[in-house]
């Protein structure tokens, strides 16, 4: 997947750094970047997380820069910036010690909740 290489280089990361942060082998990262392997969803989510992007953005071919996670820098958790509101700072502090697998699940849950909150209200019967 050329997009993984592109994002990794954009982050100024080596294959070794990406592999270590995502708990994968360097050979696996190399094979992905060269199109010799296809990642499982679980591994794709790990890589996206380390790169600070969504899994979907790894397939985005429109050339737009991916949305960056405000809590990540080079695949590592960073200190909350003063510009973040108190709730965002608290989320960042809570997430720091959560294992990667749990962070991925929490992130996906948050994305689902955001999408649901943006849906228009259902029309029809209203319960009073």
From TrEMBL:
Membrane-spanning residues: none
Keyword DNA-binding among UniProt keywords: yes
InterPro entries, per the entry: Cro/C1-type_HTH (IPR001387), Lambda_DNA-bd_dom_sf (IPR010982), TransReg_Diox_bact_type (IPR050807)
Signal sequence bounds: none
Keywords of the record: DNA-binding
SUPFAM superfamilies in the cross-refs: lambda repressor-like DNA-binding domains
Molecular-function GO terms, alphabetical: DNA binding; DNA-binding transcription factor activity
CDD domains (alphabetical): HTH_XRE (cd00093)
GO cellular component, one term: cytosol
Boundaries of every HTH cro/C1-type domain copy: 4-58
Entries under PANTHER family matching the protein: HTH-TYPE TRANSCRIPTIONAL REGULATOR, METHYLPHOSPHONATE SYNTHASE
Protein name: HTH cro/C1-type domain-containing protein
Originating species: bioreactor metagenome
């Amino acid at each position: 997947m050329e997009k993984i290489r592109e994002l990794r280089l954009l982050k100024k990361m080596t294959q070794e750094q990406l592999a270590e942060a995502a708990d994968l082998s360097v050979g696996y990262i190399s094979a992905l970047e060269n199109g010799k392997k296809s990642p499982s969803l679980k591994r794709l989510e790990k890589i996206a997380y380390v790169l600070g992007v969504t899994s979907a953005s790894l397939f985005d071919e429109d050339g737009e820069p991916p949305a960056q996670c405000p809590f990540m820098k080079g695949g590592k958790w960073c200190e909350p910036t003063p510009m973040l509101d108190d709730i965002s700072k608290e989320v960042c502090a809570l997430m720091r010690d959560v294992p990667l697998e749990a962070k991925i699940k929490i992130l996906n849950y948050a994305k689902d909740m955001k999408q649901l909150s943006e849906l228009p209200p259902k029309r029809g019967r209203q319960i009073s």
